[in-house]
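ok trying again, last paste got cut off:
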Amino acid sequence: MTNRIELHVSETVPFSGGEAFGDAGPYERLRGRARFAVDPLAPAQAGVTDIRHAQLSGAGMVEFSAEFFLFRPADPARGNRRMFFDYGNRGNLRALQYFNDAPGSNDPLTPEHAGNGFLFRRGYSLVWAAWQGDLLPGDGRITMDLPVAHDNGKPIMGPVRQEFIPVNPTVCFPLSGRIDTRSHPAVSHDTTLAQLTRRRYPDSERIAIPAEAWSFAQATRGLDADSQVKARGGGALAIMPSDEFIYMEDGFQPGWIYELVYTARDPLVMGLGHVAVRDLVSHLKHGEADAAGNANPLPKIDKAYGFGRSQTGRCLRDFVYRGFNADAVGRRVFDGVIPHVAGAGKMWLNHRFANGVAMAGQQYEDHHNIADSFPFSYAETTDHLTGKTDAILKRPETDPFVMHTQSASEYWQRKASLVHTDTQGNDLPQPDNVRVYFWASSQHTSDPVGVIPAKGVCENYSNVVAVSPVFRALLDALDAWVTDGTAPPESRIPRRSDGTAVPYSAWRKQFPAIPGAKLPTGPAQLSLLDFGPETEHGILSKQPPDVLAKDGYTILVPAVDADGNDIAGIRAPMVQAPLGTYTGWNLRTQGLGTGANYEFLGSYIPFMDTAEEREFTGDPRASVAERYGSPEGYVAAITVAAQRLVAEGFLLEEDIDRAAVEARNWGRPRHLVQLDTNSGLT
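nice, full thing came through this time. structure:
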């Protein structure tokens, strides 16, 4: 049987008030739902976990659907015949935010949402579509409907493990860990059949919480006839039995790592998210009309590019690794891909009881995630712990061109060095169709608009290095690479061979002795884990998994200069002309996992303003005044850095002026301090 797709458009409206974007002219926005029907026995999707346990239609097909957004030139002839597909991160639209410097929005429609217009001026047809089947509706997120897997009409059951790390006092969590994500329902409310523990640090001993101290229940404000009422500081709570929430009357203590292992039922067939992306992009690229006779809503498409950041960057790597970049008839789906800040992970998706929204493991959070499994690199290599040989790219006829980009945070929290080393930390040459670019001294999430640094739950101010201009230059380079073979700049990465990728012990000796600065204890490590005998088939029967080799794989971090800024990689203007030390790590503050790296935040540790302050405090780093002399000197340094990046192919000409304007507008606020008139930098 042939896979079927129908696109039902529910809305077509002018975008940005009909504004014309250069040669591409005005755009219009479409919203709708794609409906899919696939043959569960066909080779194209035979590897989807539990697809044979999904309910079949009368025609013997598995059916599911996904919401989508499309932006297209109002005059199809004015587009560039390229599709840009953005994997919505946890259902949120991100591409306009990062490529166009636009404010984040799940309902982009106004001129403000066009930002600087880059993607529209280039003439791209933009596509977002849901791929994550366990997301719940809300806040404009795009969602999808997937079938539940059953065993001949009976519920499928199995172990599920979930971590909870509260930042604030709380008494209740959804079992998924996130309010926006479907929880796997508990088979029983009997807490003696489950295990709840807590521990101070990841390697600390697990402390069992007595079964009578917690329950499968939901705490809500208000009263219910069948609920137990508890009085708390904020008023009465209604405590209602629930198979999708956990409740603890005495509360979850902030900063502790809580871990729940319980028996769940009714897993979704989550791997169909890959099928949805594959079949939609293939149809938009090649199809003239869908199964219902509806015309393809996009103009003629010659090339399709995929972009994913963080969770969706991992999803894009997983998509390619599992062979979904070949459509149902063997054609290439994405011609080029940009997995951004994915680190060395893939995706916890094509598994029974997957949690699509879950972050992959960091030093303190989300441990023992199946997403962090060999292979890690696009190049073929052998796992020294298991003897297995594999690669993410292994299908030359359908593999895309790859631009893998990552920040410093991924080296500290997401094992990023394994993208370009073997499992023992030796440099690993990448295939000819791969570039890996390290965005030096930047953090996982960079606000393209610019913000005043804040500390939050961390010891240091958050990293504020602006990197969005690099997105634009690399997309242009990717298009030229795919279209006419024009090679982009060579990979820019830390390498062991030249001393720019080092073990933590060497980094510790390099980092400057900044007064009062607290340093990390190391990057997140990666152990070899055993999730059970059916792991290769998507069944994780051991929760928590057995740790077979605790020290596991070799993780390297970028070497730093005398300021503590990364030496290798693409150094954004703010790194070439710094106002402080910018790192990929930040530390949890007292009481919240003291001293451990915090999620994906980096640090900004400002320079002293003047030589006098530097000398008094004993800061070894040159002061701002010593470096630049005046505001004009700082702007000039930023401009020179931007010009250098243009010459190297990592910045567009149009972004030189933007860099200078940003330096004038918020260069000083990013430094946090108001220099006095004597410094010459007020």
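cool. Residues 668-682 have pLDDT under 50 and may be disordered. The chain has 13 helices and 30 strands.
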